[in-house]
Amino acid sequence: MSIVKINVLTVPEEQRETLEKRFASRAGTVDSSDGFEWFELLRPVEGTDSYLVYTRWRAEEDFQNWMSGRGQAAHRDGAAAGGGERPKPAATDSTLWTFEVVQQAAPKQG
Question: Full-prediction pTM beyond 0.85?
């Protein structure tokens, strides 16, 4: 079964728009990666300042391969785009959670 990586990002209110724009500008950088299955950026609604970055992978190895290649490049490209210094992170903290998918369901068709 697949694995899920959830990156929990602490994002102050004044940095939310910045974070969302940065993710939007990198849209598609993970989609064609070998073993990639799903991505969602989850915005907090109330009671927390934590965004969740949800990705699903065929296997841990696929995630690690992406992180050491395209993932690393995607996080570096913010500096290259402006031709200057790397922009200040929008998040003040980050924690990576890993889960194995042990059960799943989808809507029934028909």
Answer: no
